[in-house]
Amino acid sequence: MTVARAARAAPAPKARRPRPLSLTLRVALLLSAVAVATFLAVGAYLYQTLASQMARRDDIELIAKVAQIRRILAELPSPRAIVENPRPLTDALFGHDDFMLSVKGPDGAPLLRTSLTSRPLPQVERVPPQRALTLADVHDWTPAMGTGRMVSAVGLVGADGQPVQITLARERSDRLRLMRNYAVDLFVALCVGATLAALLGYAIVRHSMRRLRSVIGKANDINTSRLNTRLSVEDAPVELREMGQAFNAMLDRLEDGVQRLSGFAADLAHDLRTPVNTLMMETQVALSRPRTVQEYQALLASNSEEYERLARMIENTLFLARVDNAQLGLRREAVDLSAELQRIHDYFEILADDVGVRLTVDSPPLRAEVDPVLLQRAVGNLVSNAIRHTPAGGEVALSARATADGVELAVSNTGPGIAAEHLPHIFDRYYRADSARSDHAHSAGLGLSIVRAIMELHGGKIRVDSVPGARTVFYLSFEKNQNI
Amino acid sequence: MKILVVEDEPKAGDYLVKGLRESGYVADLARNGVDGLALALEHDYDLIVLDVMLPQMDGWAVLGKLRERKHTPVLFLTARDDVADRVKGLELGADDYLVKPFAFAELLARIKTLMRRGPVREADVVRVADLEIDVLRRRVTRQAQRIELTAKEFALLHLLAKRQGEVLSRTQIASMVWDMNFDSDTNVVDVAIRRLRAKIDDPYPLKLIQTVRGIGYLVEERA
Q1: Which residues contact A202 (CB under 8 A, 6 or more apart)?
Q2: Distance from B192 to chain A by nearest Cα, in Å?
Q3: Does pTM top 0.80 for this prediction?
Q4: Which residues touch A85 (CB under 8 Å, ≥6 apart)?
Q5: CB distance from B101 to chain A under 8 Å?
Q6: Assuming Cys at both sites, which of A76, A360, A476, B179 could form a disulfide with A81, CB separation 3.0 to 4.6 Å?
Q7: 8-state DSSP, A16
């Protein structure tokens, strides 16, 4: 939380990067874009449908009119009657100011011609008298303004069936005007709709984001001393629930880590207290009155031993910290395990012999890709522990064998063993099976943790079998062909 | 043998210089990088002990500037035991390093190694008072009496005898005799010394193996 505050309080960086749009605004803009696109598509479709349906209906009307004219013509006695009395024909066109009719006699002489354009109509194929007109017989023509449609057909007049030439044309300017108005209406509706969608979207998203803000509020309340706060995920929407669960899982891990870390720090401080206390006491008592040179020397020598212990504790702690932070690089080499075990045996043999413990090695020639210094340290720690816990007359045995997937080292001892309830914890830092025993002459609190850390670094495993009163065995297993 | 110590921590610097002088070296002290570099360039030192964390001009900078002009051996001291740190120092031309905290005996040993020019031929016979070690035949005698030692006991005695007068820490001894290169809190070395004493010193009035409490052991003829 303090970090978040500090970040907020910090002055804005000089180089201003464009701030990313808020999620709310972004969703709203996207919604309105989607609305515009949808409306545009629907509008275009509607417009197209309307336009083509209107054209079709106009064409049908044109054909119907021609059919009607044919029927009227058929009832007339002769082509002359058209000139004498055009009323039946003009009546047929009543109310259709945009229609233009021209009727020509068999000789080509015009018999009737209504209003009409100065422009000549193009010559199109005439539909023969016996055939009914279809939509295919309607043609385009170009009047002075806009577009037009026209039909040309032959009609028969009178009982003797004299052919006359009928041409019916129509200007479509009013239709175009209608369509234009329609388009304008559509556009206005589109703009209003898109704006409405954007506003509604913004409001809805903003409302939904309220939950997210409450999550953020909770997250802001979490700090290292209040790590136990969790986000309530039960009543959250699915998307937020997943995020909340992931967030809570992260908090679980953090809390665990922080607790272990603070426990570790407390243990370390505790462990440092004893030697520091000894040093202070010894030194202050010695300084309280004059001493002989021998006394001073003894004091300083004793101090020096304590300092070495302190230095070793610091080193061990740093080693574990570096393993935790994965800062420690392994230097693997092909190591002859039997030779290495023999070397460790030779080193500890004197010590074992001194306390009456038999130290044995049993290993076939075996090679493994391990860090030799760390291996020495791991096995050394185990052997040193084993000798310490084995009574005189007992035995500590070092052995190695090849397994199906690698090699396994074992350090066994005939000590009193480890009670079952302690087994899961003995690799924990500063865990002491026997809390009553003052084991402070050795920094044993970290010894087994270090062994485990070394095994983890190698991708290997450590396990322990203990039969109290009989035998305790630590197994270190290294897998073969590890990727280095 | 002239040594320059560049160390800003007052107590550490004073005691380093004091310890070195008492070990028979001529030692100068610089308390910051700038002074250290000036001294190092002005005088001809046989060795420079250089702390890395220094005010004004850090050890790396001093080392870099120094190497432009001189090839005085440099042993650097660091409190950060990072591989990267060590590599950096050695790449910049340092000759060795020690990680704080270190044993003073360890520092002396490193200094001796750095100052030893060329390979030193080991003596075939090492003598301390009436003790004689025949390295080739692996025979040890005192007052012309043969003493039987195990292989490791022989190695331990030989190490102490050929570096007589020099205190060796337990860690150094474990590393050089048993090739154990981790710092453990076992008392193997103490037990080994005790057993060696039983054979070498106990039967004779003149004791040769000396304990320096808090530091380690040495072989020396003491009046």
Answers
A1: A24, A25, A27, A28, A31
A2: 6
A3: no
A4: none
A5: yes
A6: A76
A7: P
